[in-house]
Design brief:
Blueprint (H helix, E strand, L loop, with lengths): L6 E3 H8 L3 H9 L5 E3 L4 E4 L3 H13 L4 H27 L1
């Protein structure tokens, strides 16, 4: 069974959220979201929409710049890795 991925065009997303395409590209350059490029359009996987909204809230509501968001992402990943390691070590006890 194959699951078909759904995408939203960046232009449409920018209109809905009132942001510029440059902002989305900057998020991708900092590995915060993944963008797909086709000959016709630039697309965001609908599964990435939650992450995009999270980054937008932090960026606009708290005034965190894009490099700051990347640091937050790194810290969240590190925290998750430590949680997994702790769970693994606890299972050995």
């Amino acid at each position: 069974m194959s699951i078909e991925r759904q995408f939203i065009e960046i232009q449409k997303l920018c209109t809905i959220y009132d942001v510029t395409p440059d902002l989305l590209i900057a998020l991708e350059e900092h590995d915060l979201i993944s963008i797909a490029y086709t000959e016709e359009a630039i697309l965001l996987d609908v599964d990435e929409l939650g992450k995009f909204e999270q980054w937008m809230r932090l960026h606009y509501d708290l005034g965190i710049n894009i490099p700051g968001l990347a640091v937050i992402q790194d810290l969240l990943e590190e925290r998750e890795n430590l949680r997994q390691e702790l769970a693994h070590l606890r299972s050995k006890i």
